[in-house]
Structures are given as C-alpha cells and as structure tokens.
Amino acid sequence: MSYTDIKQIADALRQCSPPCNFLVFGLTHETLLWKALNHNGRTVFIDENRYYAAYIEEKYPEIEAYDVQYGTKLSEMPELIAAVKEQVRNECRPVQNLLFSECKLGLNDLPNQLYEVDWDVILVDGPRGYWPEAPGRMAAIFTAAVLARSKKGGNPKTHVFVHDFNMKVDRITSDEFLCRENLVKSKDMMGHFVLERMDSNASQFCRSSSHSPPSSTS
C-alpha cells in the first residue's frame, strides 16, 4: 500500500476519539502497522485463510484475527447485487444485525460480539478478488456498509476505506452500497467513504437510486 493510502487511514484513526474501533478485512503486509496506528484502540482483522489467521495470532499474540468463509465468486457479482436489491426491504436491508441475516452478501458467521461493536473505521483490503472464482470483495463491502449504518452508539459517522478501488468490481459494489454521495476522496488505489448511522426503518442504501461511476481522482 502506498504512503498516500496509508496516510488517509492514519488520519482517520487520529481523528477518532480513543478508544477507536477499527475493523480490517484482510491480513496484509500492513497488519502490524494498523495495530500500532490504533494505539489503545481495538483493531480486529478478518481473513478468508483460517491457517494464516491462526499463524498470525500465534506469532503476534497482540493481534485479534478471525477467519471467515466467503460464499461468493467474483463472476457472480451482477447476480449477487441484483439479489440484494430484491431483498433490500427484508433480508438485505441497510440497517440490521447481520448475525441473523440470510442476505447472500451479508457475513453472518463472524464472532457474535463483533456485530455489537460500533466501528469507527473499516478498511476493506480483502479477500482476494482477481480472477472469476475468487471470492471478491462484494460481501466485505456490503457488510461494512451495514455495520456502519447500524451503529447503536458512539460517533454516528464511520470512515470506510476500500483498497484496490481501481478494480471495477470494487467500484461497482462500493457505488451500490457505500454510495457515491458518501465518497469523500478517491486517489490512487483508495476510495474513502464516510457513512452516517441510519434509521432502523431505512430501506435504501443510497439517496439516489441511479448511480454514476465514481471518478478516479479526488
């Protein structure tokens, strides 16, 4: 990840009143850096590789990491987004406890306590998504969007960062669930969104039902 990308996340963590709750999808080269930047806060990592997650926790006991099984394929993105739109008032609504959801893009098998946390910063830097059979980041982006809008307390705003924002799938999924009106910066490979808590009766992710693709510059 470039210095510019890292600085955007570091700035968001610095603005956060400690303790800051930081959720990261993907165990990467920056894992130890994210933990260090969120000093005195809680940093949780989610990864699709259970063996790597266990290895990282064993090698670095201070790291809190969990594995999750993604049931998605990159090639299925259009069908998965269409399924969410059909269920946006029911299983796939923007405000809910995903632990009890049957939405195809909702991750409902994370540790139960993670659904109760009011996340201040969320980074989507996983899972892998570069070939048709890869899980892609659709579920991670959708889950981040719901967690941000479903906060019960704390700061009503959540910073959501999507790395590899230059990838078409990540842009399309972000446009659908994080929403263009919430995009505050798009530079290099990072998309930075700020989402606000929503009313529990909300039935739309975006204020506008028609989206235009985000631009590649800030």
Tell me the total number of β-strands. Answer: 7
Give the full name of the CATH homologous superfamily.
Vaccinia Virus protein VP39
Number of domains: 1
Low-confidence stretches: 210-218
Mean pLDDT across all amino acids: 93
Fraction in helix: 25-40%
The CATH level-2 architecture is identified as: 3-Layer(aba) Sandwich
Radius of gyration: 16 Å
Structural class: alpha/beta
The CATH first-level class comes to Alpha Beta
User: In percent, how much strand structure appears in the residues?
Assistant: 15-25%
Order of helices and strands: HEHEHEHEHEHEE
Topology at a glance:
Elements (H helix, E strand, L loop, with lengths): L2 H13 L5 E5 L5 H7 L4 E6 L2 H10 L4 E4 L9 H10 L34 E4 L13 H12 L7 E7 L4 H12 L3 E5 L2 E7 L22
Parallel strand pairs: 1-2, 1-4, 2-3, 4-5
Antiparallel strand pairs: 5-7, 6-7
Helix pairs in contact: 5-6
How would you portray this structure in words?
- Strands 3-2-1-4-5-7-6 form a seven-stranded mixed beta sheet, with helices on both faces.
- Helix 5 (138-149) packs parallel to helix 6 (168-179).
- The chain is of the alpha/beta class.
- The chain has helices at 3-15, 31-37, 50-59, 77-86, 138-149, 168-179; strands at 21-25, 42-47, 64-67, 121-124, 157-163, 183-187, 190-196.
- The chain has one domain: 3-Layer(aba) Sandwich (Rossmann fold).
- The longest helix is centred in the N-terminal third of the chain and has 13 residues, at 3-15.
Give a short synopsis of this structure:
The chain is an alpha/beta fold.
